[in-house]
Design brief:
- By secondary structure, the protein is α/β, with parallel strands linked by helices.
- Helices cover 43% and strands 14% of the residues.
- The chain has 15 helices and 14 strands.
- α4 packs across α12.
- The chain is globular.
- The mean pLDDT is 97.
- Bound molecules: pyridoxal-5'-phosphate.
- Pyridoxal-5'-phosphate binds next to α5.
Length: 399
Protein backbone atom coordinates (compact mmCIF):
# COMPACT_ATOMS: atom_id res chain seq x y z
CA UNK A 1 0.00 0.00 0.00
CA UNK A 2 1.37 3.41 -0.86
CA UNK A 3 2.00 6.01 1.86
CA UNK A 4 -0.07 9.09 2.46
CA UNK A 5 2.19 12.13 2.65
CA UNK A 6 1.68 15.20 4.81
CA UNK A 7 2.44 18.37 2.87
CA UNK A 8 1.08 20.59 5.67
CA UNK A 9 4.13 19.81 7.78
CA UNK A 10 6.29 22.86 8.55
CA UNK A 11 9.98 22.01 8.29
CA UNK A 12 12.53 24.55 9.46
CA UNK A 13 15.06 25.25 6.73
CA UNK A 14 16.84 28.05 8.53
CA UNK A 15 20.45 27.34 9.32
CA UNK A 16 20.75 24.68 6.59
CA UNK A 17 22.58 27.04 4.21
CA UNK A 18 19.35 27.10 2.20
CA UNK A 19 19.46 29.64 -0.63
CA UNK A 20 15.75 30.34 -0.21
CA UNK A 21 15.92 30.94 3.55
CA UNK A 22 19.47 31.75 4.59
CA UNK A 23 20.20 34.25 1.79
CA UNK A 24 17.13 36.41 2.42
CA UNK A 25 19.19 39.26 3.81
CA UNK A 26 21.28 39.37 0.61
CA UNK A 27 18.27 39.27 -1.69
CA UNK A 28 15.64 41.25 0.19
CA UNK A 29 17.78 43.28 2.61
CA UNK A 30 16.12 41.50 5.54
CA UNK A 31 15.69 37.97 6.86
CA UNK A 32 12.19 38.96 7.85
CA UNK A 33 10.19 37.83 4.78
CA UNK A 34 8.23 34.68 4.02
CA UNK A 35 10.42 33.34 1.20
CA UNK A 36 8.37 32.40 -1.86
CA UNK A 37 10.99 33.00 -4.50
CA UNK A 38 13.65 30.50 -5.67
CA UNK A 39 12.11 27.38 -7.25
CA UNK A 40 12.47 24.66 -4.68
CA UNK A 41 9.77 23.30 -2.39
CA UNK A 42 9.19 23.61 1.33
CA UNK A 43 7.99 19.98 1.36
CA UNK A 44 10.19 17.17 2.61
CA UNK A 45 12.15 15.42 -0.11
CA UNK A 46 10.28 12.08 -0.30
CA UNK A 47 11.17 9.43 2.28
CA UNK A 48 12.07 6.80 -0.35
CA UNK A 49 14.78 9.13 -1.69
CA UNK A 50 16.11 9.98 1.77
CA UNK A 51 16.11 6.27 2.68
CA UNK A 52 18.02 5.39 -0.50
CA UNK A 53 20.59 8.07 0.31
CA UNK A 54 20.92 6.82 3.89
CA UNK A 55 21.36 3.25 2.70
CA UNK A 56 24.07 4.38 0.31
CA UNK A 57 25.77 6.36 3.09
CA UNK A 58 25.74 3.20 5.20
CA UNK A 59 28.06 1.58 2.65
CA UNK A 60 30.63 3.87 4.29
CA UNK A 61 32.74 4.88 1.27
CA UNK A 62 31.76 7.64 -1.15
CA UNK A 63 34.44 7.13 -3.80
CA UNK A 64 34.13 7.70 -7.57
CA UNK A 65 31.02 6.13 -9.03
CA UNK A 66 29.49 5.65 -12.45
CA UNK A 67 25.91 5.44 -13.66
CA UNK A 68 24.84 1.85 -13.69
CA UNK A 69 22.30 -0.06 -15.74
CA UNK A 70 19.55 0.23 -13.15
CA UNK A 71 19.75 4.02 -13.19
CA UNK A 72 19.54 4.09 -16.98
CA UNK A 73 16.58 1.73 -16.88
CA UNK A 74 14.83 3.92 -14.29
CA UNK A 75 15.06 6.95 -16.60
CA UNK A 76 13.94 4.99 -19.65
CA UNK A 77 10.89 3.61 -17.85
CA UNK A 78 9.95 6.93 -16.31
CA UNK A 79 9.92 8.54 -19.74
CA UNK A 80 7.66 5.81 -21.08
CA UNK A 81 5.20 5.79 -18.20
CA UNK A 82 5.02 9.54 -17.56
CA UNK A 83 5.57 10.95 -21.05
CA UNK A 84 4.82 8.11 -23.45
CA UNK A 85 8.30 8.63 -24.90
CA UNK A 86 10.42 5.63 -25.85
CA UNK A 87 14.12 6.41 -25.74
CA UNK A 88 17.35 4.43 -25.85
CA UNK A 89 19.70 4.59 -22.90
CA UNK A 90 22.58 5.37 -25.33
CA UNK A 91 20.94 8.74 -25.90
CA UNK A 92 21.50 9.87 -22.31
CA UNK A 93 24.22 12.18 -21.10
CA UNK A 94 24.39 13.84 -17.69
CA UNK A 95 25.27 17.26 -16.37
CA UNK A 96 25.49 18.77 -12.89
CA UNK A 97 22.27 20.72 -13.41
CA UNK A 98 20.23 22.04 -16.31
CA UNK A 99 21.69 25.56 -16.24
CA UNK A 100 25.18 24.18 -16.90
CA UNK A 101 23.64 22.10 -19.70
CA UNK A 102 22.14 25.23 -21.29
CA UNK A 103 25.59 26.81 -21.31
CA UNK A 104 27.21 23.67 -22.73
CA UNK A 105 24.61 23.57 -25.53
CA UNK A 106 25.43 27.15 -26.51
CA UNK A 107 29.15 26.25 -26.58
CA UNK A 108 28.56 22.99 -28.44
CA UNK A 109 26.30 24.21 -31.23
CA UNK A 110 27.14 27.86 -31.85
CA UNK A 111 30.14 30.09 -32.50
CA UNK A 112 30.80 33.56 -31.07
CA UNK A 113 28.65 36.05 -32.98
CA UNK A 114 25.92 33.49 -33.79
CA UNK A 115 22.36 34.37 -32.82
CA UNK A 116 20.34 32.44 -30.25
CA UNK A 117 16.61 32.95 -29.71
CA UNK A 118 14.81 32.91 -26.35
CA UNK A 119 11.13 33.52 -25.65
CA UNK A 120 10.58 36.02 -22.82
CA UNK A 121 9.40 36.43 -20.19
CA UNK A 122 11.62 33.47 -19.42
CA UNK A 123 13.85 31.90 -16.77
CA UNK A 124 16.74 34.37 -16.57
CA UNK A 125 19.72 31.98 -16.96
CA UNK A 126 18.54 31.54 -20.58
CA UNK A 127 19.81 35.07 -21.21
CA UNK A 128 23.19 34.64 -19.54
CA UNK A 129 23.77 31.26 -21.25
CA UNK A 130 23.74 33.17 -24.54
CA UNK A 131 25.39 36.44 -23.58
CA UNK A 132 28.17 35.08 -21.35
CA UNK A 133 29.67 33.21 -24.30
CA UNK A 134 29.71 36.09 -26.75
CA UNK A 135 26.64 34.92 -28.69
CA UNK A 136 23.95 37.37 -29.74
CA UNK A 137 20.69 37.20 -27.81
CA UNK A 138 17.53 37.52 -29.89
CA UNK A 139 14.20 37.85 -28.07
CA UNK A 140 11.02 36.42 -29.53
CA UNK A 141 8.59 37.43 -26.76
CA UNK A 142 5.52 35.32 -26.12
CA UNK A 143 2.29 37.09 -27.02
CA UNK A 144 -0.70 37.34 -24.70
CA UNK A 145 -4.20 36.63 -25.96
CA UNK A 146 -7.04 36.85 -23.44
CA UNK A 147 -4.60 36.58 -20.60
CA UNK A 148 -2.93 33.44 -22.00
CA UNK A 149 0.57 33.22 -23.46
CA UNK A 150 1.34 31.85 -26.94
CA UNK A 151 4.33 31.62 -29.27
CA UNK A 152 4.54 34.62 -31.59
CA UNK A 153 5.46 32.82 -34.80
CA UNK A 154 5.25 35.86 -37.08
CA UNK A 155 7.73 37.69 -34.89
CA UNK A 156 9.92 34.58 -34.84
CA UNK A 157 10.03 34.42 -38.65
CA UNK A 158 10.98 38.10 -38.79
CA UNK A 159 13.84 37.64 -36.36
CA UNK A 160 15.55 34.73 -38.13
CA UNK A 161 18.52 35.28 -40.41
CA UNK A 162 21.56 33.30 -41.55
CA UNK A 163 23.29 33.79 -38.21
CA UNK A 164 20.42 32.28 -36.18
CA UNK A 165 21.61 28.86 -35.01
CA UNK A 166 19.71 27.94 -31.88
CA UNK A 167 16.39 28.44 -30.11
CA UNK A 168 16.10 27.71 -26.39
CA UNK A 169 12.60 26.52 -25.59
CA UNK A 170 11.16 26.40 -22.08
CA UNK A 171 8.65 23.54 -22.00
CA UNK A 172 6.64 23.74 -19.77
CA UNK A 173 7.34 27.43 -19.53
CA UNK A 174 8.76 29.15 -16.46
CA UNK A 175 7.39 31.65 -15.40
CA UNK A 176 4.15 31.70 -17.43
CA UNK A 177 3.17 28.09 -16.69
CA UNK A 178 2.18 27.07 -20.23
CA UNK A 179 2.23 23.44 -21.33
CA UNK A 180 2.72 23.63 -25.08
CA UNK A 181 0.27 21.66 -27.21
CA UNK A 182 1.48 19.31 -29.90
CA UNK A 183 0.18 21.62 -32.65
CA UNK A 184 2.04 24.58 -31.17
CA UNK A 185 5.28 22.59 -31.00
CA UNK A 186 4.85 21.42 -34.59
CA UNK A 187 4.28 24.97 -35.85
CA UNK A 188 7.31 26.23 -33.98
CA UNK A 189 9.45 23.35 -35.22
CA UNK A 190 8.35 23.78 -38.83
CA UNK A 191 9.91 27.23 -38.77
CA UNK A 192 13.06 25.98 -37.04
CA UNK A 193 13.44 23.04 -39.42
CA UNK A 194 13.00 25.24 -42.49
CA UNK A 195 15.75 27.52 -41.22
CA UNK A 196 18.04 24.81 -39.88
CA UNK A 197 17.78 26.07 -36.30
CA UNK A 198 18.53 23.55 -33.58
CA UNK A 199 16.16 23.61 -30.61
CA UNK A 200 17.30 23.09 -27.04
CA UNK A 201 14.25 22.06 -25.05
CA UNK A 202 14.49 22.68 -21.31
CA UNK A 203 11.90 20.28 -19.90
CA UNK A 204 12.92 20.43 -16.25
CA UNK A 205 9.28 21.20 -15.27
CA UNK A 206 7.82 18.37 -17.37
CA UNK A 207 6.74 16.27 -14.39
CA UNK A 208 4.98 19.18 -12.69
CA UNK A 209 1.95 19.26 -14.96
CA UNK A 210 -1.64 19.52 -13.77
CA UNK A 211 -4.39 17.42 -15.31
CA UNK A 212 -5.88 17.50 -17.88
CA UNK A 213 -2.75 19.09 -19.42
CA UNK A 214 -0.20 16.70 -20.82
CA UNK A 215 3.47 17.40 -21.35
CA UNK A 216 4.71 16.43 -24.79
CA UNK A 217 8.47 15.98 -24.99
CA UNK A 218 9.51 17.92 -28.07
CA UNK A 219 11.65 15.04 -29.28
CA UNK A 220 8.67 12.66 -29.13
CA UNK A 221 6.63 14.63 -31.66
CA UNK A 222 8.21 13.16 -34.82
CA UNK A 223 11.37 11.46 -36.09
CA UNK A 224 12.37 14.58 -37.97
CA UNK A 225 11.97 16.78 -34.90
CA UNK A 226 13.85 14.35 -32.68
CA UNK A 227 16.86 14.71 -34.99
CA UNK A 228 16.80 18.50 -34.61
CA UNK A 229 16.43 19.00 -30.90
CA UNK A 230 18.05 18.10 -27.62
CA UNK A 231 16.22 17.69 -24.31
CA UNK A 232 17.06 18.52 -20.71
CA UNK A 233 15.21 16.88 -17.84
CA UNK A 234 15.85 16.21 -14.15
CA UNK A 235 14.16 14.86 -11.03
CA UNK A 236 15.35 17.95 -9.14
CA UNK A 237 12.31 20.26 -9.36
CA UNK A 238 9.86 17.37 -9.17
CA UNK A 239 11.25 15.65 -6.08
CA UNK A 240 12.97 18.57 -4.33
CA UNK A 241 16.52 17.37 -4.88
CA UNK A 242 17.94 20.49 -6.57
CA UNK A 243 20.89 20.56 -4.16
CA UNK A 244 22.17 17.29 -5.64
CA UNK A 245 22.90 18.78 -9.08
CA UNK A 246 22.10 15.77 -11.23
CA UNK A 247 20.24 16.12 -14.52
CA UNK A 248 19.79 14.29 -17.81
CA UNK A 249 20.44 15.38 -21.37
CA UNK A 250 18.71 13.28 -24.02
CA UNK A 251 20.01 13.45 -27.58
CA UNK A 252 18.98 11.02 -30.28
CA UNK A 253 21.16 12.26 -33.13
CA UNK A 254 24.63 10.80 -32.76
CA UNK A 255 26.51 13.77 -34.15
CA UNK A 256 24.67 16.22 -31.89
CA UNK A 257 25.32 13.91 -28.96
CA UNK A 258 29.04 13.74 -29.70
CA UNK A 259 29.25 17.51 -29.93
CA UNK A 260 27.59 17.84 -26.51
CA UNK A 261 29.69 15.06 -25.03
CA UNK A 262 32.87 16.81 -26.15
CA UNK A 263 31.94 19.81 -24.00
CA UNK A 264 31.28 17.61 -20.98
CA UNK A 265 34.61 15.85 -21.46
CA UNK A 266 36.51 19.09 -21.95
CA UNK A 267 35.38 20.24 -18.51
CA UNK A 268 35.69 16.79 -16.90
CA UNK A 269 32.19 16.98 -15.45
CA UNK A 270 30.96 13.63 -16.78
CA UNK A 271 31.38 11.67 -13.56
CA UNK A 272 28.60 11.71 -11.05
CA UNK A 273 27.53 12.71 -7.62
CA UNK A 274 26.96 9.47 -5.67
CA UNK A 275 23.87 10.78 -3.88
CA UNK A 276 22.57 12.46 -7.01
CA UNK A 277 22.62 9.06 -8.71
CA UNK A 278 20.84 7.32 -5.89
CA UNK A 279 18.21 10.06 -5.65
CA UNK A 280 17.53 10.05 -9.37
CA UNK A 281 17.11 6.30 -9.52
CA UNK A 282 14.84 6.02 -6.50
CA UNK A 283 12.75 9.02 -7.63
CA UNK A 284 12.06 7.51 -11.01
CA UNK A 285 11.52 4.00 -9.64
CA UNK A 286 9.25 4.91 -6.74
CA UNK A 287 8.05 8.47 -7.24
CA UNK A 288 4.65 8.21 -8.88
CA UNK A 289 2.37 8.10 -5.87
CA UNK A 290 4.24 10.88 -4.04
CA UNK A 291 4.17 13.00 -7.18
CA UNK A 292 0.42 12.57 -7.63
CA UNK A 293 -0.19 13.61 -4.03
CA UNK A 294 2.21 16.55 -4.21
CA UNK A 295 0.65 17.87 -7.42
CA UNK A 296 -2.76 17.56 -5.88
CA UNK A 297 -1.65 19.59 -2.86
CA UNK A 298 -0.04 22.28 -5.01
CA UNK A 299 -3.08 22.40 -7.27
CA UNK A 300 -5.21 23.06 -4.19
CA UNK A 301 -2.79 25.81 -3.13
CA UNK A 302 -3.20 27.37 -6.55
CA UNK A 303 -7.02 27.20 -6.33
CA UNK A 304 -6.87 28.67 -2.84
CA UNK A 305 -4.72 31.57 -4.06
CA UNK A 306 -6.99 32.17 -7.02
CA UNK A 307 -10.07 32.43 -4.85
CA UNK A 308 -8.29 34.47 -2.20
CA UNK A 309 -7.16 37.06 -4.74
CA UNK A 310 -10.58 37.20 -6.36
CA UNK A 311 -12.24 37.85 -3.00
CA UNK A 312 -9.65 40.02 -1.27
CA UNK A 313 -7.16 41.39 -3.76
CA UNK A 314 -8.94 41.80 -7.11
CA UNK A 315 -6.15 44.07 -8.41
CA UNK A 316 -3.75 41.11 -8.36
CA UNK A 317 -4.52 38.26 -10.74
CA UNK A 318 -2.96 35.30 -12.52
CA UNK A 319 -3.69 32.88 -15.30
CA UNK A 320 -3.89 29.44 -13.71
CA UNK A 321 -0.60 27.64 -14.55
CA UNK A 322 -0.91 24.44 -16.56
CA UNK A 323 2.36 23.33 -14.99
CA UNK A 324 4.89 24.37 -12.31
CA UNK A 325 4.29 25.56 -8.76
CA UNK A 326 5.06 29.13 -9.81
CA UNK A 327 2.38 31.80 -10.09
CA UNK A 328 2.92 34.68 -12.48
CA UNK A 329 1.08 37.37 -10.56
CA UNK A 330 -0.10 40.42 -12.48
CA UNK A 331 -0.01 43.57 -10.33
CA UNK A 332 -0.69 46.01 -13.17
CA UNK A 333 -4.13 46.98 -11.89
CA UNK A 334 -2.63 48.18 -8.60
CA UNK A 335 -1.10 51.05 -10.63
CA UNK A 336 2.06 50.73 -8.54
CA UNK A 337 5.41 50.65 -10.31
CA UNK A 338 7.72 47.66 -9.93
CA UNK A 339 9.86 49.23 -7.22
CA UNK A 340 6.82 50.25 -5.22
CA UNK A 341 5.37 46.73 -5.43
CA UNK A 342 8.71 45.22 -4.43
CA UNK A 343 9.14 47.56 -1.45
CA UNK A 344 5.53 47.09 -0.34
CA UNK A 345 5.92 43.29 -0.47
CA UNK A 346 9.19 43.22 1.45
CA UNK A 347 8.96 46.10 3.90
CA UNK A 348 5.24 46.13 4.66
CA UNK A 349 3.88 42.67 3.86
CA UNK A 350 7.05 40.70 4.67
CA UNK A 351 6.80 38.46 1.62
CA UNK A 352 9.73 37.66 -0.68
CA UNK A 353 8.82 36.96 -4.32
CA UNK A 354 10.80 37.12 -7.58
CA UNK A 355 10.59 40.38 -9.50
CA UNK A 356 8.88 39.90 -12.85
CA UNK A 357 11.53 42.09 -14.46
CA UNK A 358 14.11 39.42 -13.66
CA UNK A 359 12.52 37.39 -16.46
CA UNK A 360 12.82 40.17 -19.04
CA UNK A 361 11.18 43.52 -19.68
CA UNK A 362 7.95 41.66 -20.47
CA UNK A 363 7.77 40.96 -16.73
CA UNK A 364 7.01 44.60 -15.89
CA UNK A 365 4.13 44.73 -13.43
CA UNK A 366 4.48 41.02 -12.54
CA UNK A 367 5.91 39.12 -9.60
CA UNK A 368 6.52 35.35 -9.42
CA UNK A 369 5.24 33.49 -6.38
CA UNK A 370 6.30 29.96 -5.44
CA UNK A 371 3.35 28.11 -3.85
CA UNK A 372 5.09 24.77 -3.17
CA UNK A 373 4.73 25.31 0.55
CA UNK A 374 2.45 24.26 3.40
CA UNK A 375 -0.96 25.95 3.24
CA UNK A 376 -0.26 27.87 6.48
CA UNK A 377 2.69 29.61 4.88
CA UNK A 378 0.63 30.56 1.86
CA UNK A 379 -2.26 31.83 4.00
CA UNK A 380 0.09 33.98 6.07
CA UNK A 381 1.69 35.49 3.00
CA UNK A 382 -1.63 36.28 1.32
CA UNK A 383 -3.09 37.74 4.52
CA UNK A 384 0.00 39.92 4.93
CA UNK A 385 -0.31 41.27 1.38
CA UNK A 386 -4.04 41.82 1.74
CA UNK A 387 -3.71 43.64 5.09
CA UNK A 388 -0.94 45.83 3.72
CA UNK A 389 -2.85 46.85 0.62
CA UNK A 390 -6.00 47.53 2.64
CA UNK A 391 -4.09 49.77 5.04
CA UNK A 392 -2.60 51.66 2.09
CA UNK A 393 -6.01 52.04 0.51
CA UNK A 394 -7.50 53.35 3.77
CA UNK A 395 -4.61 55.83 4.10
CA UNK A 396 -5.16 57.03 0.53
CA UNK A 397 -8.89 57.46 1.17
CA UNK A 398 -8.12 59.71 4.13
CA UNK A 399 -6.00 62.05 1.99
C1 LIG B 1 13.35 26.32 -16.77
C2 LIG B 1 14.40 26.00 -15.75
N1 LIG B 1 15.54 25.44 -16.13
C3 LIG B 1 16.50 25.12 -15.24
C4 LIG B 1 16.34 25.39 -13.89
C5 LIG B 1 17.42 25.09 -12.90
O1 LIG B 1 18.09 23.95 -13.23
P1 LIG B 1 19.32 23.41 -12.39
O2 LIG B 1 19.11 23.72 -10.96
O3 LIG B 1 19.29 21.94 -12.69
O4 LIG B 1 20.54 24.07 -12.96
C6 LIG B 1 15.15 25.99 -13.46
C7 LIG B 1 14.97 26.32 -12.03
O5 LIG B 1 14.06 26.97 -11.64
C8 LIG B 1 14.16 26.30 -14.41
O6 LIG B 1 13.00 26.87 -14.05
Amino acid sequence: MSSIYNFDKQISREGTDSVKYDLRKDIFGTQNVIPMWVADMDFATPDFILDAIRQRADKEILGYSYRGEMLMKAIREWLIKRHNWTTKTDWYLFTPGVVPALNLAVLAYTQPGDEVIVQPPVYFPFYSAVKDHGRKLICNPLKIEQGKYFFDLEDLKNKINKKTKLLILCSPHNPVGRVWHKEELVELMNICLENNILVVSDEIHSDLVFEPNKHIPLASVSEEISDHCITFMAPSKTFNTAGLFTSEVIIKDEKLRQQFSKQIDALHIGWCNVFGNVALQSAYEMGESWLTQMLNYVSNNISYTYKYLEENLPDISFQRPEATYLLWLNFQKTKMDDDEIWKMLINDAGVGLNKGLQFGKEGKGYMRMNVACPRDTLENALNNISNTLKLEQDANNLL
